[in-house]
Design brief:
By secondary structure, the chain is an alpha+beta fold. It folds into 5 domains: 90 residues, GIY-YIG endonuclease (3-Layer(aba) Sandwich), CATH 3.40.1440; 141 residues, no CATH class; 110 residues, Ribonuclease H-like superfamily/Ribonuclease H (Nucleotidyltransferase, domain 5), CATH 3.30.420; 161 residues, UvrC, RNAse H endonuclease domain (Nucleotidyltransferase, domain 5); 55 residues, DNA polymerase, domain 1. The protein has 21 helices and 20 strands.
Length: 620
Amino acid sequence: MARPGARVHEQRRHLPDGPGVYLFHDAKGKVIYVGKAKSLKKRVASHFSNPVTRGAYRMTEEIESVDYLLVASESEALLVEQNFIKQYQPRFNIRLRDDKSYPFIAISMDEEYPRVYFTRERHRRNRLYFGPYSNAKRVRGTLDLLGKVFQFRSCQGPEPGRRSGSPCLDYYIKRCGAPCVGYVDRAGYMEAIEGVIAFLSGRYREIERDLEARMRAAAEAQEYEQAAIERNRLNAVRSLLERQRVANEAVGTLDAVAVAVQGTDANAQVFQVRDGVLSDRQSFYLSNEGERELEQVVEEFVLQYYAEAISIPAQILVQVPVDPSLADALAERRGGRVELRVPERGDKRRILDLAERNAKLALDQERLKTERRRQQRVEALDGLQQALGLDALPLRIECYDISNLMGTHQVASMVVFEGGAPKKSDYRRFRIRGNEGVPDDFAAMAEVLGRRLAQWERQADLSPHDPEYDPSFAALPNLIVIDGGPGQLSAGLSALQGFRDRGVAVISLAKRIEEVFRPGVREPLRLAHDTPELQLLQRVRDEAHRFAITHHRGRRDRAMTSSVLDELPGIGPARKRAILKHFGSPEAFLAASREELEAVPGLPGKVARDLWNSLHKTGV
C-alpha cells in the first residue's frame, strides 16, 4: 500500500497546466481546502514548496489526496471555487465565524397590498429582500422611519385589515393609509411601496425631491394640513441622511471593504455608501486557520460576501490590488461592469481608511473579549477543582439529563464542555430502551451512563481512521455531572465504576437550592451563587437540560403528528413542516380555525379548506 505522501506526490505529477479549482482532502476524505489557479500544477506545488506560516504547515501535513476540476477561464474558476467553499465549508479557507442569521428587510410583492417587515430569512419567491444588515436595532429604526414616511400597513397576513372592518390605530396616528377600508386604493398604496424600494435601494435624492414636490403641491392647493405632513416626512428623511453623510453626493454609490488580519483571526468591514450617505456598516469576524496573507483574505471575503449579497455596486473600494478575474466574476453576477479600486486620495480614500480603522478596532476588541472569556473560564475551572478536591483541572466535563412526559418518549442528553466552553460537536443523544412507559429516572440514568462506559471501552479497540470511531465517546472525561439529587447520583455510580477506577470524578447537581452531591459524602456542598465555579456547573446543567428537552419535544411532536398530518389530503413533508413551524405545536394546529389554516404561508387556500374539513369530518 502506497504511503499517503507518495500518493499525493503522484497525484501532483498528473495535474494539468491550466486554469481550474483544486480540493485538498484529509485522511477521512473531508475537504479541508479549496483553491483556484491559473495553472493547477504550479499553484498546488507552491503549497508544498513554500508553506510560510504555521497554518500553512498544518494544512500540508493533513493533506492525503488532491482532487481538481478544469474550467474555461479564471473568472469561472472563482465562481466554482465559491460554490465548493459554500458546499464543503473547508477548515483552512476563510470562513465567516458568525453563525447568526443576519436581519433583512422584506417586501411581500406576492401580496395585493405588500407588507414591509423585518426578517432573518430570504428564501421566499416573489419577495424583495434588502440586506443583510449587521444591526437589528438599526433595521427596526429604519422600518419605523419608513412607516412614518410611506404609511404602509403593519398588519399580518396576506390581506390587510382586521375582522372588525374598521381601521386600526396606525391609521389615526398617520402610520398607515388604511387600504383595508378603501381609504387608499392599490395604485396609491403601490406608489408608497415604490418609495420604500427607492429608499432601500439608496436612491435618497429621488425620495427627497419627490417629498419636496408633494409638499409644494399640497401648499399650492391650500391643503395646508397635508403640506405639513409632507414637510415633517421630508425633515425626517433629511435628518437621517445628514446624520449618516460621510462624503459629498458626487461620491455616488459604492462599497468600501477593509480587512484587518492577526494570525488566525480577521475582521472585515463593509461600508455601504449610497449618494454619499453611509446606509449601513457591517462587521464580519473571519476564521483564518490557514493564516492567509491580507490579499488572499480580501479576495476570498469579497467573493463570499457578494455571492450572497442582494445587489453588487458598480464600484468596490479595497485596500490592496486583487486578481482582475475577481472583477470579471462579480460583473458576470451583477450583469454590468464592476470596478475593484484601491483609492489613493480624496473622499474615497478617507472612507476606506475609516473602514480599515474600524476593522482593526473591532479585531482588537474581539481579541480582548476572547482573552477575558478565556481568563474567566480558567478561574471557573480552578475554583471547581479546589471546591471538589480534584487532582487536576476538570478540562473535560460531561453532563447527563433525562427528559420524559409521564414516562413516554424518554430520552437522555450528554453535553460536553472542554476548557470551560461548550464543545457541541461532542454532544450526544440517547433513547431510553429499558423502561418505556415506566417513569423511572433512576433506571434511565443508570442505563445511559452504562452505555456511555461501554462505548468508551469499545472505542479503545478502534482506530481513529475507523468509520465507527467516535471521538466524543473515545475521550475520557475529568468530571461527570448528573442532573439531579442523591438518588440520581447513586443510580449512576455503579454504572460508572469503570470510569471512577480511572480517576473520573462523578457528582450530581440538584436544582432547588443548587446543592452538589458527592459520592461518600453525606452533606451536600453548597457553593456561593456568585462564584464562577457554581456558575459553570449551572451552565453545563442547563445546557444538558435544554438539549434533552429539544430531543424529547422533537420525538413527541413527530409521534403526535404522525397519525394526523401524514394521512391528510394534500399534506407532504414540506407542507407538514410549514404547518408545524407556523403553529409551533401539534396542539395549536389541531385547535386552529379554518381562517387560521388559510393563513399558513405556503399552504394554498383550497388545501387549507380541505384540510380543515377532513379534520372536522373525522372528528380528530
